[in-house]
Amino acid sequence: MLTINELQKTFTIHHLQNTFTALNNISLHVKEGGFLGIVGKSGSGKSTVLKSIYRTYEPQSGEILFHSEAFGMIDLLKASPRQIVYLRKYEIGYVSQFLNVMPRTTALELVTQSLLDIGIKRHDAVTRAKEALTHFDLEETLWNSYPNNFSGGEKLRLNIACAIVKQPRLLLLDEPTASLDETSKIKVRESIEKLKAQGTTLVGIFHDLEFMDGLCDEIFTMEKYVKGEIA
């Protein structure tokens, strides 16, 4: 489903006139329907890997081969902007710790729109959106509220609902349980297990190693790849 070959990513801090290596020849493979967990200390480049797959970041070299339903085997680093938009809409989901939304869009509208985007009829989309919000313990009194005033945990649960409800072929999880209580973590785990059973391929970052236990098929450790500074 996903193969990364010799991925190299650097960042330049111009006012310091320094370039830092974030990813140093990263190579990994995720089989279709599998779950790869990425572990490593803070600053080791875990999120950079996910953002490179999602094309939020553009690495300097390497390749990210994705078996797309629409385009066949495609290198995400060479995909056109139009192709990336399509893949984000229909095939690749991303869950981060943060939620950036239009200020006057309610929680229910956000999840409903995720389903409308992939062609679900409005009546069914609203029904499924409500089921997702209920599953992730977002109180019904919040459904027609704007998420800007939600707590961190509520925003994160909404973010997860928006991504998971679409049942993407590939789901990227960037610390999706970071600010959740134990009950909410169980809900997230149940949803991940259900997606995996349905054939979704997953790549995730978790600091909670107990949460990962029995969930991931393989573990990739970032410390094997040394970061450094380029003069």
TrEMBL record:
Keyword S-adenosyl-L-methionine: no
Gene3D superfamilies per record: P-loop containing nucleotide triphosphate hydrolases
Coiled coil segments of this chain: none
Entries under PROSITE patterns matching the protein: ABC_TRANSPORTER_2
An example Gene Ontology molecular-function term: lyase activity
Keyword check for Nucleotidyltransferase: no
SMART domains: AAA
Protein name: Phosphonate C-P lyase system protein PhnL
InterPro entries recorded: AAA+_ATPase, ABC_transporter-like_ATP-bd, ABC_transpr_LolD-like, CP_lyase_PhnL, P-loop_NTPase
SUPFAM superfamilies: P-loop containing nucleoside triphosphate hydrolases
Biological source species: Solibacillus faecavium
ABC transporter domain: residues covered: 2-230
Top-rank taxon, per record: Bacteria
Record's keyword terms, sorted: ATP-binding, Lyase, Nucleotide-binding
